[in-house]
């Protein structure tokens, strides 16, 4: 545990003398008042003191909006005097930029999506979790694909634990699209010219690009030529595209304002949001398949207050919090123990009853590597995507 | 026959209820310098701006060189104005400022060069043609403005208190320059000022204005020596005003005042009317107690260079200012002396209100 | 006994080590100059130096090379985006200045109160993003403009160039920039006192001549300021092109921000940023030159 910088003011050494003085001069009176005030405010300056081994105190968290557990784990947080300070991330790069370099910022617990762990491992900005402090993480309480899987555990250490997940797939408006979409190729039909949006999110879009080009099995490890081929084959889709949406919320707004009829690939929670605004959208089940996003908690190398962080991660896996999160955010749960606590509405986003078979159809994709000699790197993909968007 | 170049017929200017000019009738002769003189707010600047075309009269006509100006905007009138703060264009140098009106008319380059150089010589600024406006002094700027206003050979030049921004010494010099340039160009000048000295030195005729009306009009001598109203009398130089009643007897006409009778020239004013006698300080002769019309005690003596002004308090409490020139032949009475002030009847001007 | 004292030894000489004649009161300018020095000049220089380094997975490797610039020159994608950005900038700056100038003229010379000025500035009270989404509503496929035109029977199908196109980006950017341009022009025009305009008219200038020979040269700084301010902000903006520019409206600002945020390649991002800045500098020089040739600059001699 790191030392806290002490901001305790230096009290005048003569305080006791001042107090004892029967006739304080005006100057002494002022000094005494100042000292007393400083003393009274001490509490605000010294971090909440607690014995080692107990939990409580400040936790600097960075997470997606709605995923900070402030509501779902409110009781736990209050009962343990945890001072949760969440910062909201707009995209994964917001986290990366805070943790790399010479002056990283203190963050105690942070989310990453899917395969960003590999990048972060290469950048050496994570520290392994102490599983003894996370009893809720065990084989009975986690669905098998999320327990001790490669994306979150390597080198015999658990580096992060997935806690919510969801599907990314082709979403379209069945009321305005005159046919049922069964494959990505349906997006190329003339009725959809200029009515398609592509989400500008590498994590969501890249796997689908690879799938559409036929490299779905090899993604994220493609050679430079294969990657170039992907974008070449994507060009007809670009001709159908009206706009590159900036976020899930942007996609929702595009659907509800009637600008687009279909989105290349986006989180299926979007369907809930559009329905709330009286526009119906459904998630297609294209033969190319969808992708899975999974958010996991990790502990950065700049973290402090580790006991509390572990306790919070443990709480995130508890059935109550899982059920609460899934209901609030239309995400899917990682814990079968949460299912009895979830309403039918909350469970509608995945066929939990046939979890094993249904999940087998999906794949949780990683990201292209940061550095590589034989494969196209993350930077290469980003550059190719930028060029593609610029029209090349 | 009088050559009336600029005529104002019944010009009235109102802003809402406020009357700036009230039925002005004025004729300016070709080639003269006419000065509009008056205190602030009397309407002289308004009248000038109406002549320039920046304001339109509420009623009345302006005629310049026989042509009605009602529908003519300022840029089409052949009238140029010399602004109070010169309004020289800071983005052009002296040469280009002066050349501005000619470039507007798109005159050929060579003609512009010749005319500008002639103008520069006229205002004696030949070496300054490449200076920028922020590099020249106030007096030089005024001459540039003058050159710029005259180069287009306007029919009338309007001068809006052009000397007010200058130091006293330069002011005098510039007055002479203006007179010289007026002689050399023969342009009609309409001059506006609140300074009576300028008006007296420069003008062929002075028009005294107050509260939107013309109070009196005439040559400087007429204005000074024969004021027709109390306002006019008080405006020019110093004067002593004595109130009284006109009395007539067999041998003389006089004004009966609290300080005695003052003999005046008979001007057919009805007997018994209330009049004001205006007597200039220099008209008084100070003598010892025995002779003279007005008796009093010398209260204060001001020695102002070439002249001495004595303040004499009369028996009835009225203060008179009498002026004598300081020469060896004349001695001034000391403070406290009993003196008598007398003046010739011709030097007493009677005004009615 | 008299002794000659050399003046220099006994009078404290305020020696200026640089021997530059500083204008009086230069001390007052120190805070903003220092601020600019530390928070603009030095970071810009740092960025420039960085642009010659290489990047390795979010880390900067100080390895001098011009590889980044070569990459940029060969990247057709960057130049296309850059050109789009400069085009946006040009249209936005021109339209903003053309819209703001008459309004500024009115506020300075004709209006009795500053009401119009405050109304134009009122749009600043709403957030930048709110305004963008407001324009989406107005220009959208089912938005106000299209609905009105369809209801009036003037068009059959919604106009597709109105939204998610460079046109939409330009319209939105103009909305953002006009208050800036208006403020700058009002400030510049307030120095052009009405007396100058009267003098010019008095000397025979028509209204157009007053504008081109007196007003514009005298408010030259304001013109350049308003134009370049709008241009630079519009050309470098990456939020509006992203949200309103559509498929074909990508500008270089977005690519630059991508390099810094997604890829972590600061050297390449810096190189792109400096390339963009050089382009903007060229635009500035061209614009000032254009004004000079068009005889709209002060300080020219015509004889």
Structural class of chain A: alpha/beta
DSSP summary, beta strand count of chain B: 20
Mean pLDDT of chain B: 88
Chains forming the largest contact: A-C, 36 and 34 residues
Terminal Cα separation of chain A, in Å? 51 Å
**In angstroms, what is the radius of gyration of chain B?**
25 Å
Tally of individual helices of chain B: 8
CATH class of the largest domain in chain A: Alpha Beta
Radius of gyration of chain A: 26 Å
What is the average of the pLDDT values of chain A?
Answer: 83
Which secondary-structure class do the elements of chain B indicate? alpha+beta
Task: Catalogue the unreliable spans of chain A.
Answer: 1-24, 42-51
Instruction: Give the biggest sheet of chain A.
Output: 11 strands, mixed
Major sheet description of chain B: 6 strands, mixed
User: What is the CATH-assigned architecture of the largest domain in chain A?
Assistant: 3-Layer(aba) Sandwich
Q: What series of H and E elements makes up the topology of chain A?
A: HHHEHEHEHEEEEEHHEHEHEEHHEHHH
CATH homologous superfamily title of the largest domain in chain A:
Periplasmic binding protein-like II
- Give the helix level of chain B as a range of percent: 10-25%
The best one-word shape of chain B is elongated
> What kind of assembly state do the chains in view correspond to?
heterotrimer
Brief synopsis:
The complex is a heterotrimer of chains A (392), B (353) and C (303). With 353 residues, chain B is of the alpha+beta class. In chain B, 24% of the residues lie in helices and 36% in strands.
What does this structure look like?
The complex is a heterotrimer of chains A (392), B (353) and C (303). Chain A has 392 residues and is of the alpha/beta class. Chain A is built from 15 helices and 13 strands. In chain A, strands 1, 2, 3, 4, 7, 8, 9, 10, 11, 12 and 13 form an 11-stranded mixed β-sheet that branches. In chain A, strands 5-6 form a two-stranded antiparallel sheet. In chain A, helix 7 crosses helix 8, helix 8 packs parallel to helix 15 and helix 9 runs parallel beside helix 10. Chain B contains 8 helices and 20 strands. In chain B, the strands form 4 sheets. Chain B has a 6-stranded mixed β-sheet with strand order 6-7-8-3-9-10, sandwiched between helices. In chain B, strands 13-12-11-14-20 form a 5-stranded antiparallel β-sheet. The mean pLDDT of chain B is 88. In chain C, helix 4 packs across helix 8, helix 9 crosses helix 10 and helix 13 runs antiparallel to helix 14. Chain C starts with 6 loop residues before the first helix and ends in a 10-residue tail after the last helix. Helix content of chain C is 68%, strand content 2%. In chain C, strands 1-2 form a two-stranded antiparallel sheet. Chain C has a domain of 208 residues: MetI-like fold (Orthogonal Bundle), CATH 1.10.3720. Chain C has 303 residues and is mostly helical. In chain C, strand 1 and strand 2 form a beta hairpin. Chains in contact: A-C, B-C. At the A-C interface, helix 5, helix 6, strand 9 and helix 15 of A face helix 4, helix 6 and helix 13 of C.
């Amino acid at each position: 545990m790191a030392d806290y910088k002490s901001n305790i003011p230096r009290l005048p050494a003569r305080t006791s003398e001042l107090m004892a003085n029967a006739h304080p001069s005006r100057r002494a009176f002022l000094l005494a008042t100042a000292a007393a005030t400083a003393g009274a405010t001490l509490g605000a300056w010294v971090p909440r003191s607690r014995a080692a081994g107990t939990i409580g105190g400040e936790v600097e968290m960075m997470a997606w909006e709605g995923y900070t557990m402030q509501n779902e784990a409110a009781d736990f947080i209050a009962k343990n005097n945890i001072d949760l300070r969440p910062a909201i991330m707009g995209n994964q790069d917001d986290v990366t930029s805070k943790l790399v370099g010479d002056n990283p910022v203190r963050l105690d617990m942070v989310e990453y999506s899917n395969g960003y762990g590999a990048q972060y491992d290469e950048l050496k900005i994570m520290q392994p979790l102490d599983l003894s402090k996370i009893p809720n993480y065990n084989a009975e309480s986690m669905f098998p694909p999320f327990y001790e899987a490669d994306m979150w555990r390597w080198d015999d250490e658990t580096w992060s634990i997935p806690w919510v997940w969801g599907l990314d797939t082709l979403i379209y408006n069945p009321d305005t699209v005159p046919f049922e979409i069964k494959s990505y190729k349906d997006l190329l039909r003339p009725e959809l010219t200029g009515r398609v949006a592509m989400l500008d999110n590498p994590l969501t879009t890249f796997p689908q690009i690879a799938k559409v080009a036929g490299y779905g099995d090899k993604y994220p490890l493609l050679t430079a030529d294969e990657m170039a081929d992907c974008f070449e084959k994507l060009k007809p889709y670009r001709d159908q595209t009206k706009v590159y949406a900036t976020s899930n919320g942007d996609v929702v707004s595009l659907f509800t304002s009637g600008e687009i009829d279909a989105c290349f690939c986006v989180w299926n929670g979007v369907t809930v949001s559009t329905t709330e605004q009286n526009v119906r959208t459904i998630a297609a089940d294209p033969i190319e398949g969808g992708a899975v996003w999974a958010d996991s908690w990790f502990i950065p190398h700049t973290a402090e207050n580790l006991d509390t962080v572990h306790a919070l991660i443990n709480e995130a896996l508890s059935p109550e919090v899982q059920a609460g999160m899934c209901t609030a955010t239309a995400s899917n749960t990682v814990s079968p123990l949460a299912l009895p606590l979830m309403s039918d509405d909350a469970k509608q986003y995945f066929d939990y009853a046939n979890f094993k078979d249904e999940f087998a159809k999906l794949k949780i994709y990683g990201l292209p590597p940061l550095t590589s000699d034989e494969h196209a790197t993350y930077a290469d993909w980003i550059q190719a995507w930028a060029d593609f968007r610029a029209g090349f | 026959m009088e050559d009336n170049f600029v005529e104002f017929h019944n010009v009235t200017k109102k802003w809402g209820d406020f009357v700036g000019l009230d039925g002005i009738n004025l004729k300016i002769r070709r080639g003269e310098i006419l000065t509009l003189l008056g205190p602030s707010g009397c309407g002289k600047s308004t009248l000038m701006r109406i002549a320039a075309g920046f304001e339109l009269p509420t009623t009345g006509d302006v005629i310049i060189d026989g042509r009605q100006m009602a529908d003519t905007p300022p840029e089409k009138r052949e009238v140029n104005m010399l602004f109070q703060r010169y309004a020289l264009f800071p983005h052009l140098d002296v040469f280009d400022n002066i050349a501005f009106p000619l470039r507007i008319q798109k005159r050929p380059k060579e003609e512009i060069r010749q005319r500008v150089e002639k103008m520069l010589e006229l205002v004696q600024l030949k070496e300054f043609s490449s200076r920028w406006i922020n590099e020249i002094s106030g007096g030089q700027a005024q001459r540039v403005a003058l050159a710029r206003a005259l180069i287009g050979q306007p029919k009338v030049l309007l001068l809006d208190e052009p000397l007010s921004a200058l130091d006293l010494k330069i002011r005098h010099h510039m007055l002479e320059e203006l007179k010289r340039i007026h002689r050399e160009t023969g342009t009609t000048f309409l001059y506006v000022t609140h300074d009576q000295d300028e008006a007296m030195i420069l003008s062929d005729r002075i028009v005294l204005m107050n509260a939107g009306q013309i109070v009196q009009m005439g040559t400087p001598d007429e204005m000074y020596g024969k004021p027709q109203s109390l306002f006019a009398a008080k405006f020019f130089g110093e004067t002593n005003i004595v109130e009284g009643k006109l009395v007539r007897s067999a041998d003389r006409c006089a004004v009966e005042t609290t300080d005695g009778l003052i003999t005046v020239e008979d001007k057919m004013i009805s007997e018994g009317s209330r009049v004001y006698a205006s007597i200039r300080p220099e008209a008084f002769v100070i003598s010892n107690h025995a002779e003279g019309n007005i008796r009093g005690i010398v209260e204060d003596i001001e020695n102002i260079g070439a002249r001495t002004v004595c303040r004499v308090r009369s028996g009835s409490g009225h203060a008179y200012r009498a002026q004598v020139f300081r020469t060896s032949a004349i001695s001034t009475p000391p403070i406290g002396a009993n003196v008598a002030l007398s003046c010739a009847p011709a030097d007493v001007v009677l005004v009615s209100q | 006994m008299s002794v000659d004292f050399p003046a220099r030894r006994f009078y404290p000489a305020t020696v200026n080590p640089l021997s530059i004649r500083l204008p009086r009161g230069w001390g007052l300018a120190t805070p903003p100059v220092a601020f600019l020095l530390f928070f603009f000049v030095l970071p810009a220089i740092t960025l420039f130096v960085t642009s010659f380094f290489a990047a390795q997975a979010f880390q900067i490797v100080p390895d001098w090379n011009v590889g980044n610039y070569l990459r940029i020159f060969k990247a057709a994608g960057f130049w296309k985006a850059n050109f789009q950005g400069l085009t946006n900038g040009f249209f936005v700056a021109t339209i903003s200045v053309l819209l703001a100038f008459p309004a500024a003229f009115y506020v300075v010379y004709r209006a009795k109160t500053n009401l119009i000025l405050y109304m134009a500035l009122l749009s600043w009270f709403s957030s930048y993003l709110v305004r963008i989404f407001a324009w989406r509503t107005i220009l959208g496929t089912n938005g106000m403009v299209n609905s009105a035109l369809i209801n009036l029977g003037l068009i059959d199908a919604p106009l597709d160039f109105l939204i998610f196109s460079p046109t939409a980006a330009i319209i939105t950017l103009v909305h953002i920039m006009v208050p800036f341009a208006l403020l700058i022009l009002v400030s510049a025009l307030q120095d052009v006192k009405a007396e100058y305009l009267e003098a010019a008219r008095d000397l025979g200038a028509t209204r157009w001549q007053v504008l081109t020979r007196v007003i514009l040269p005298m408010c030259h700084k304001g013109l350049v300021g308003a134009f370049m301010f709008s241009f630079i902000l519009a050309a470098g903006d990456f939020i509006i092109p992203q949200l309103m520019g559509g498929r074909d409206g990508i500008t270089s600002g977005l690519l630059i921000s991508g390099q810094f945020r997604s890829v972590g390649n600061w050297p390449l991002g810096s190189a792109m940023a400096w390339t963009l800045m050089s382009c903007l500098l060229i635009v500035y020089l061209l614009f000032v030159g254009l004004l000079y040739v068009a005889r709209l600059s002060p300080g020219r001699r015509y004889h």
